[in-house]
Amino acid sequence: MRVLIRADASVTIGSGHIARCLTLANVLRRDGADVRFACRELPGHLLQRLADHGCATYALPARYGAEEDQDIEAALPWQADLSAFAEEIEHEPPFDWLIVDHYGLDARWEKAARGLADRVMAIDDLANRPHAVDVLLDQNYSAQALDQPYAAWVGPDCQTFLGPRFALLRDEFQCEPIAIKPRVERVLVNFGGFDAAGQVYATMQALQGLDDMQVDFVAGLHNPHWQAMSDLAASRPEWRLHSLTGDFFARMQAADLFIGAGGGTTWERAALGLPTICISVANNQQLNAQLLAEAGVHVYLGPHVQLEAGRLRAAVEQLCGDVPLRRSLAEQSRLLVDGLGARRIADALAKVAHNAAKGQGA
What we know:
This protein is of the alpha/beta class. Helix content is about 35%, strand content about 20%.
């Protein structure tokens, strides 16, 4: 099976789209699939990371004409994007699957791209625009909690996979839960691969004075507050500051409390039963984070732009002193995911392709 994935990463977009697509790609590749990525060369792109994982890549332009810098949900000039995309793969035979994970692309791009692949899949979180695809995945809790969120956005023949049962998690998250200790000894802070919102630094400032905990701050690449954070961490022997870390899973396992955003690590934390204080750093995280809080999965403090340091510190102190609450958060989290979501999606794609081939043979 030949699979082509269209997704981007950047300082503005973040790394989550590439991270989850790479997780699915690794499962497909273990099954023998040839998986390739097409990504724009935006500031902070992850083309080299994909190549390091053994995936062939196609580099697309960072800009199309006079395109201006846009936010994460802004529509791309879809015709220009498709033209550049098609030019990169013009000598390739058609792919079995084209997977698109991009808030800036919709049914217009998907319809026009059908000449490049036999089938098209979309990965989405927003349920706010039409899709012309055979399969759609939304791994958010909001996708299963709301009543048919994609009914108006996909055709009747589209298979939908909705909710954290299908969360694209790496194999290590098929794991046992962490132990909930009587005392919080280690805290892990991370707000994504880039932390454009500067929330790691804000959390550092809020945690000053809490001296009885070991804290790992994973600040991400190109963090705008790196020097100030380095100065703060240098004065605190119980704090450790990292840009990225190759053993993030091990650090999560060792933590008693996580402070972070409402993106892809939500499901990693849930798999581990890691009690979490969540702060949304993008509009598209807010609904999911709020619904998870109402379900008792984490403590949600709202958008970062509205959060005062004192409120964050009070939430940390509350959770540190409330073992039953931490245990309840862990138990509710573990009900959501089992780490097999990528396997389920890979099997579904293979089944659709197999059935189509079987039908053509008949």
